[in-house]
């Protein structure tokens, strides 16, 4: 059984930076079950003390030292987090000294300062992309004229989280299409996808991993059976090969890596927000 380790992403802002960095780090380690929690807008002493108390309680509950990935810029808040007894990793610490030396300047640690640098065109593009991803999730809407990319896969192969990540971090209008039993009866693309062939990217997954995921969602159902998972994955991969759709396995691949591969393969050039 995988060892459980509580992990907290703590930030004086949204926590997206801390969570993105932390997730990238944790994916480098196997054999652990990381229980994660994002604490956003920890921007004063009282909130920092509350956060430290929650972190300390998690350590007592699991009888192990928690891990904290922090993007709080105020050193006083960081000191309070350190009192939790957790391993506290400051996202900015490895870079500040080098930048101060290179720029011959001292940083000014003001909470929320980064939010004053918002490019509102970029902000609105990201919000619109998020709305698009949510309204075109799992085949809810099938008019893909405005889509930048359409992820195609069997149910629970990682389509939705990847679409959300692409929207949130790159402003990409990502839709996803779940392959149904009817779709999988043929080696060819479903008719509604054929006009958008250049936007398609296929996701696949190891059948055993797919069964584990589906078992959590619908225990002991036909949907979660080993036979169903093997059949659907095999048929989807056969379709992707026949139609020459670029494909990537999500089994051991992080969302960041999947997103990067999608952008590179389809030639979508966007800077990360």
TrEMBL record:
Keywords: Kinase, Nucleotide-binding, Serine/threonine-protein kinase, Transferase. ADP binds at residues 153-160. It is an enzyme of class 2 (transferase). It comes from the Bacteria. It catalyses: [pyruvate, water dikinase] + ADP = [pyruvate, water dikinase]-phosphate + AMP + H(+); [pyruvate, water dikinase]-phosphate + phosphate + H(+) = [pyruvate, water dikinase] + diphosphate. It holds the Pfam family Kinase-PPPase. GO terms for molecular function: ADP binding; ATP binding; phosphotransferase activity, phosphate group as acceptor; protein serine/threonine kinase activity. Belongs to the pyruvate, phosphate/water dikinase regulatory protein family. PSRP subfamily. Bifunctional serine/threonine kinase and phosphorylase involved in the regulation of the phosphoenolpyruvate synthase (PEPS) by catalyzing its phosphorylation/dephosphorylation. This is Putative phosphoenolpyruvate synthase regulatory protein.
């Amino acid at each position: 059984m995988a060892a459980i380790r509580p992990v907290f992403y703590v930030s004086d802002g949204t926590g997206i930076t801390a969570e993105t960095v932390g997730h990238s780090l944790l994916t480098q380690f196997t054999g652990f079950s990381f229980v994660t929690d994002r604490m956003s807008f920890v921007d004063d002493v009282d909130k920092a003390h509350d956060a430290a108390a929650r972190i300390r309680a998690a350590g007592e509950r699991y009888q192990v030292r928690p891990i904290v990935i922090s993007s709080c810029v105020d050193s006083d808040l960081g000191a309070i987090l350190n009192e939790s007894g957790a391993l506290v990793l400051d996202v900015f610490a490895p870079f500040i000294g080098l930048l101060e030396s290179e720029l011959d300047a001292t940083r000014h640690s003001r909470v929320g300062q980064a939010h004053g640098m918002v490019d509102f065109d970029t902000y609105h593009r990201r919000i619109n992309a998020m709305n698009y991803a949510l309204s075109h999730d799992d085949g809810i809407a099938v008019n893909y004229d405005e889509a930048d990319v359409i992820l195609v896969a069997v149910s629970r192969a990682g389509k939705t989280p990847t679409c959300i990540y692409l929207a949130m971090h790159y402003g990409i209008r990502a839709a996803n299409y779940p392959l149904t039993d009817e779709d999988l009866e043929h080696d060819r693309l479903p008719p509604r996808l054929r006009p958008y062939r250049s936007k398609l990217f296929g996701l696949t997954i190891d059948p055993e991993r797919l069964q584990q995921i589906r078992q959590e969602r619908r225990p002991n159902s036909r949907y979660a059976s080993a036979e169903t998972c093997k059949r659907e994955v095999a048929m989807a991969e056969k379709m992707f090969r026949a139609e020459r759709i670029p494909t990537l396995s999500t089994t051991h691949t992080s969302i960041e890596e999947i997103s990067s591969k999608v952008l590179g393969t389809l030639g979508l050039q966007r800077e990360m927000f």
